[in-house]
Each structure stands twice: as structure tokens, then as C-alpha cells.
Amino acid sequence: MNSIPEKNSDGQVEFHDLIIELIKNFLENFLKAELTEFLNYEKHEYSGRNSGNSRNGSYLRDFLTQFGSIKGLNVPRDRNGEFQTELFQPYKRYDNWLEEAIINMYANGLSTRYVADWIEQMYGQKYSPTTISNLTNVALEEVKKWKERPLQKRYSVIFIDGMSIKVRRDTVANESVYIIIGINEDGYREILDFYIGATESAALWEEVLSNLKERGVQEVLLGVIDGLPGLKDSFLKVFPKADVQRCIVHKVRNTIVKVRKKDTDEIVKDLKKIYRSPSREFAEKALEEFDFKWSKIYPKVTQSWYVDKDELLTFYKYPESIHKAIYTTNWIERANKEIKKRLKPMNSLPNVQAAEKIIYLKIIEYNSKWSDRKMRGFLAAKDQLHQLFKKDTDLFT
């Protein structure tokens, strides 16, 4: 016989308790129906005699649902111990919503201790932060599969950009997260991979990029990168036929920190004339004017623009409709800021695995959002980009 919900001080049944009781009744009827289906005969039915198996009472267990905790759920059992309900796995005392909620809270930057405290306050169920961490380890399994998934053969552009996060190894220190994004020949973007590292080297970047090739990436037109040590050489070693574009916005930022504040606005205005020119020819003339105007005051600054000129102006080789999308990694930084926002409540990550879980879950969210949105300008550039791929049949052989 089912228990009756308790009444409050006014003699009224609490609405929440009523809901829980209704759910409990439903689940117990569901379990009985499952056992009947499993045994293939109704309770007390003659056909069940000498069937080799029969009902064998029930046992009680508590069960957490999204509506609250159900106490003393009657779970039927069979004499042979073969019946297993689809409602929950053996020894699992909550339905999948709680596991999903834990992972989502963790993905949104809440600490394992906070999540454990929340569960205890809401449901009276005690979990240690370690247990919560173990529950979120399902994400680590998915990270491994995701990092090994096959990739497309062609990407018009590959972007590489980094951000800094605090991670504990022996001590807490800043480490870099590098996000690798590809835009395919139809203009759809996707985060291909990410890497967390305390140090950088040409050998490391070659390994990271070679992994992309092993997973299927064979043809790349353009790599948009910042001046990370060893990255350009490693990129061209793995994709020797690709062009390289240095991020102009990063270059501008690096420039203005080397000039006096009173000159900043004017220098930025003059630099815009270079990368917003209608053609490479006009851009080079604007660079000459910039050099003529500022070389006596800031010779190292103007010289650095000449040294990096070819990589800074590569984008002029590509359709004008995608210029703003490929001469900077600024739009990637918006994604990076969202990822950092998820990490911020945790102050510092207890280990690399914790960082990977959160970053991966946010990346999946971005890839899902981007999957049906073409990058601005790439639809208009589609035919020209296809021609660049086909320009020389031996280009990528």
C-alpha cells in the first residue's frame, strides 16, 4: 500500500509531496509492467506455473529524479535474479538527468565542491567533490574520441589562436590553450582541436599539426597565425603548399605598446590605411608612407612591418569578401573569452584534465552553433576558393 503524503500545518497536502507520490506510483506500476513483460505472463496467471521463473517480492531503494528524491521505491524482482529494469542500471540511484545536470554545471564553471554542496542541499544526497569529478569523467572519454575523429580533406583556412589559463600541476601557473579552427571550402567553421601546454616548441607544433593530417586534413589554402615561436615553420612543414597570414590586429597591438601614447591614435589610423586598402598595390604604398612618416621616430617599429610585410599582406591574394575574416583572429578571441568565462569561477583548474573537460564541453556547444552558419563572405568567395584549390592539379600531391 502506497504511503499518503503528509499534510502541512493547515491540513493541506504539500504540492511537491503530491507530485513525488504520483511519480512514485507511476514508477512502481512501470516496474511491475516491465517484470510482467520480462516473465511473459500476468501475476497469478495459470501459464506462469512451471515456467522456470516467477515473481519474488520486491526490495526498497531510494531514487533521485529531477523532481526530488523518492524514498522507498518498491522494485520487483524475480526468483532467478535475471530481471533488470530499463529504468536504472544496477546500483544507480538517480536517473540520467542528474548526471547531465552535474556535467552541465561543471561545464559552466562551477567547482566540484559547489556541485556536491548543491546536490546535498537540494536532495539530501551526499557526494564528495571526488565523486562529482568522477561523474564528469565521462567528458574525458568523449574528449579522447573527439580528438581522434576523422576530419575533412580540405579546409580553405585554418586559424590558430591562444589564450592563457591558470592550471595546477605541482603549483598553480599560467598555461596556454591553443584553439585550432578550420573553415571548409563551403564556408562552415569548426573547432578541429585544442591543445593545453606549459611550453611551446617547433617540434610540439609539428606534432599537433601532423595529427590533423593523420586525421584526414590534406589540403589547406591559408593558415592564419600569430607570431608563436616555431609555429610558422611547423605549419609550412606539415602543409608546405599553404599560404601564411599573420594576424594584423595582433601586429597592431604589438606596435602601439612600443610607441608613445600621444602618437597612438595617429599611428593606428595610418596602419589602417595599409590593411584596409583596396588592393595590395595600394597597401604597399600606404606602408611606404607609414615608413616615411614614422621611421625617424620609431625605426624599429616601421622596420618590423617591412620584415613581416609579405605575411601581413597575404590576404590580398584571396577574395575581397573574406578579407576581414582572414586578416585577423579577432572573431576567435570572442570564442576564447566565452571559454575563459566558464573557467573564471574556478579561479584555477586543479589539473589539466579538469581544464580539458570544461573546454571540450564549450567547444561542442560552439561547433553545434556553427554547424549551420556559414562564415560571412565565404558564400560569395566559394567559386574563387574552389578555383584556388583546382589551380594546379599537382598543388597538393
Automatic annotation (TrEMBL):
InterPro entries: Transposase_mutator (IPR001207)
Keyword DNA-binding listed: yes
BP-aspect Gene Ontology terms: DNA transposition
One GO molecular-function entry: transposase activity
Alphabetical list of Pfam families matching this protein: Transposase_mut
Sorted UniProt keywords: DNA recombination, DNA-binding, Transposable element, Transposition
Source taxon at top rank: Bacteria
Primary role: Required for the transposition of the insertion element.
Family: Belongs to the transposase mutator family.
Protein's name in the database: Mutator family transposase
